[in-house]
Each structure stands twice: as C-alpha cells, then as structure tokens.
Amino acid sequence: MSEDQRLTKKERKQLKKLEKEEERERKEKREKLKKLLWPIIIVGAGVLVLLGIIQVFSLNSDIPSNQELLTIKSSDWIKGNKESKVTLIEYSDFQCPACAFYYNVAGQLMREYGAKIRLVYRHFPLPQHKNARIAAKVAEAAGSQGKFWQMHDMLFENQKIWSEQVDPRGIIVDYAKSFSLDVQKFEEDLDSKEVSDKIENDLKSGESLGINATPTFYLNGKKLRNVASYEELKKMIEDEINKLEKIS
Prior knowledge:
2 domains
C-alpha cells in the first residue's frame, strides 16, 4: 500500500470523526432547544386553555340556570299555600286539550293538598293553537283586577267553545263581564304591552328550559315525566311533602 493510499485512509477516518462530532453537536443543540421551547409551549397551551374557559363563561354568562328560571317571581300566579316549600310549577296553554285534562287533575290536587303546596301557573301558548295567546292575555287582563284564577277556570271549562271561534274576543269580553270587571280597563289591559311582555317572559323561560309541549310540570325544580293520572301526581306530591317533613 502506497503512502498516498495510507494518507487517504487517515483522511477518511478523520472525516468520519468530524462527522460524528458534528452530529453530536447538532444533537446537543436540538436537546437544548427542546429544553428551552417546552416551557414556552406549556405556558402557551395554558394561556389558550384559560382564554377558552373565559370565552365559554363569557358566552354563557347571560344564560340563566334552571334554578334561576324556576325561582318564583313576584309576577307569578300562585294558588294554595304561598309560603309552602313544595312548589308545583305548570307551563300551560289554555287551548291545549291535554292542559284542560290536567286542569281537573291539578284542581283535585289543590283541593286535597292546597294547604301544604303551592301551584304556580305560567303561560306557554303553542304556535299551533291560534287562540292560545289571546286567551293568555285575557287571563292576565283579568288578573290585573284580581280575577286571574277565576278567568283561568272559566277558560278551561269553556275551552271547546271559545277555542273554535275565528275571533273569540267577543265571547271572552262576556266572561269578563260575568266577573263584574271594569270592562274598559279589561280591554285596555288586553292590548297592553305589559300583558304581552308577561306572556312573552313566561314563554321564553319555558323555551330556555327546553319545553316543547304542554302541560309541563316541575316539582321543586325537578321536571316531572310521564304523569298519566291524578294518582301518579298525588304520589309524587306526597313523597315530596314527606321528604321535607322528615328534614324539618
């Protein structure tokens, strides 16, 4: 082997050594860079998560909770023991046939437990019932003269009569006269913004709760499902009364 060949072999060894050193240096630099970047990445991710949480809360801050929606308001119509801790809230539609059936169920319930519970009526006029909203206005207008529950009963008991009318206003005004209401004030209230707003507020609260059918009942904040009879509703009421009596 010549001197030139031996020299070339040495050069190749040196070259490989240099390449290994360079690779080692590059690896060390990458490791150092990772160590520097990881804290930045972690902090950045944390900031993004925090911003996401803040955005979610800001988007939902104006959405009332179920508890808030089901809190009794001064504008609510209450029947029974107004101080009772057992509260049955009903979202109802005066033109709804099922609501007329449960009107009798609730009536029987109040006759039996009215001293121990309170019934809250809220409007939820369904769009397919063309006279439901005017009926709700009628009840509110009567309520402004202290006759809400009387008109409530009148509307349900005569549902088949006024609900089939093209314009039930004339019949409804006669109902107001039968209660010796101030008819002029009654008709003014019937068309007032205050009455419309009250119905709209009830409707919106029901929509926020996810209600899409009537009647819908809530017993102390819990939605009641598949209540098919008076006996079933009575049992639920009794269970709630007994539970609260044990606690107290």
